[in-house]
Amino acid sequence: MRILVQKFGGTSVANLECMKKVREKVLAARAKGFKVVVVLSAMSGETNRLLGLAKEWSTSPDPAEIDVLVSTGEQVSVALFSMLMKDAGVNSRSLLGYQVPVSTDCDHGNARILGINQDKLQALLEEHDVLAVAGFQGCTDEARVTTLGRGGSDTSAVAFAAALGCECEIYTDVEGVYTTDPNIVSTARKMDRVSYDEMLEMASMGAKVLQIRSVEFAKKYKVPVLVRSTFSDAPGTLVTQEDSRMEAVLVSGIAYDKDQARVTLRDVPDVPGIASKLFGPLAAGGVVVDMIVQNPSRENKTDMTFTVPRGDLDKTLELMAEIQKETNAAEVLHDLHVCKVSAIGVGMRNHSGVAAQAFDALRRENINILMISTSEIKITCLIEEKYTELAVRTLHDAFGLGKE
Ligand code: ADP
Ligand code: ASP
Ligand code: MG
Fold it and tell me: Mean pLDDT, consecutive 10-residue segments, the chain of 404 residues?
């Protein structure tokens, strides 16, 4: 039995007309002899609408109930799509996360997939030619519904492909993975191939075309992922292991992430253990701290500045208020109008001077850098949010990434 996983995102299932395009892609795979596991997202805007309802109805909505609520978006998509397939004479059925089941941990809103019942899937695929599977959702051992974090249908799709040992196609509203977001830089160039490591950095740095965990999964289980468009027949981008066919470039892409907040605790005592006192409670509270800078301020005092996802700012400020009292720190400051821009490329491993080139490019546009962090294959600068597009375009040009 030849199996293929095809995933379609929110814009691809936004209405009947789009869903008919999806059906064409699935029928094309059927014509090539594949049994198709079709992983669907909620119709575009629906997950946000449902999250908005939860906020409107409750002052502090129960995370487990939010998951029951938002997972309905994907339920609507798979039911409607399965109807469309049946209209075309295809033997299809819908499947929700708990019916597979897609087993996850209990981290509501950000659950991790622990396993997928492969035998059940194989058996269902013997009986059906197409399975329309709800992305983004799973269930715990106690049969509670969970969701996998925003953009989580990508991860569902790769996990299904890993479980079934097949390839995975991710269909979206752009023709593949580009050197930067093609919706903000018109000269962005589509890449034919990109390595798991580069894609991982691009996703972590904000390129939402693939959810980070989907790339981690693909890398771990060596699943080739082809990103392509629902609305054209362009060949797309293959996300795969690094190989000689990949372009030998220094920087392969620029990513940006506006989902950032900067927090500063001013004038904390500059003594051993202070960082652990600050960051311990944040880690325990599930807040992922990203960039960190410590700057001596006055005698025996230091300023600690760090970034967190915007959604975690309130929790972070609550924790910092306690720590401020405990440590006698002068004040807690925060700023929501910041953005992280990153240059990514495996070529950086063997070259120096890339950071200097990036800083120089930003300087020429008078863009002030608030924080810097680097890894073996990326350079990240935190800047004021209003300069995001200019900074992304500037770095994209500086590293010669545009179309000729
Ligand atoms: P879907 O609903 O299909 O999951 P998403 O909106 O999650 O789609 O992801 C696709 C979007 O990712 C594109 O419309 C594009 O704006 C954005 N994007 C950001 N960076 C990149 C990149 N480097 N290459 C391609 N798309 C990118
Ligand atoms: N519907 C979910 C979201 O909007 C999952 C996804 O689209 O991948 O985040
Ligand atoms: Mg997505």
Answer: 97 97 98 98 98 96 97 98 97 97 96 95 97 98 97 98 97 97 95 93 93 96 97 96 72 94 94 88 90 86 94 93 91 96 88 89 96 91 97 96 80
Q: Which atom of ligand 1 is nearest to the CA of 253?
A: 23
Give the ligand 2 atom nearest the CA of 73. 1
Question: Which stretches of 85-129 are assigned E, i.e. beta strand?
Answer: 92-95, 102-104, 113-116
Residues in the chain: 404
pLDDT of residue 249: 74
- pLDDT value of residue 243: 78
Q: Is the CB of 236 under 6 A from ligand 1?
A: no
Q: Which domain holds residue 63?
A: 3-173
- Contact 171/133 with Cβ under 8 angstroms? no
Distance from C-alpha of 134 to C-alpha of 152, rounded to nearest angstrom: 11
- Which alpha helices (H) appear in 88-172, and where do they start and end? 118-127, 153-164
At residue 246, the pLDDT reads: 62
- Enter the tokens of residue 289: 């701290």
Q: Are 227 and 270 in contact (CB under 8 A)?
A: no
Please state the domain count of the chain: 1
**pLDDT value for 248:** 65
Beta carbons of 345 and 198 less than 8 angstroms apart: yes
Q: Which of these, 271, 289, 380, 285, lies nearest to 327 by C-alpha position? A: 271
Residue among 181, 187, 393 to mutate when testing ligand 1 (max atoms within 8 A of CB): 181
> CATH no. for residue 20?
3.40.1160.10
Q: What is the token pair recorded at 230? A: 């629902």
Asked, for residue 70, whether it belongs to a domain, the answer is yes
Q: Where are the beta strands (DSSP E) in 196-330?
A: 225-229, 237-240, 253-257, 261-269, 292-296, 301-308
Examine residue 49 and state whether it is found in any structural domain, yes or no.
yes
Contact between 225 and 170 under an 8 Å Cβ cutoff? The reply is: yes
60 within domain boundaries: yes
Q: What is the pLDDT of residue 115?
A: 96
Domain presence at residue 354? no
Q: Of the ligands numbered here, which is closest to the C-alpha atom of 77? A: 2
**Using CA atoms, how far apart are residues 91 and 156, in angstroms rounded to an integer?**
22
The residues with which 333 forms a beta bridge, in sequence order, are: 264
Predicted confidence at residue 145, as pLDDT, reads 98
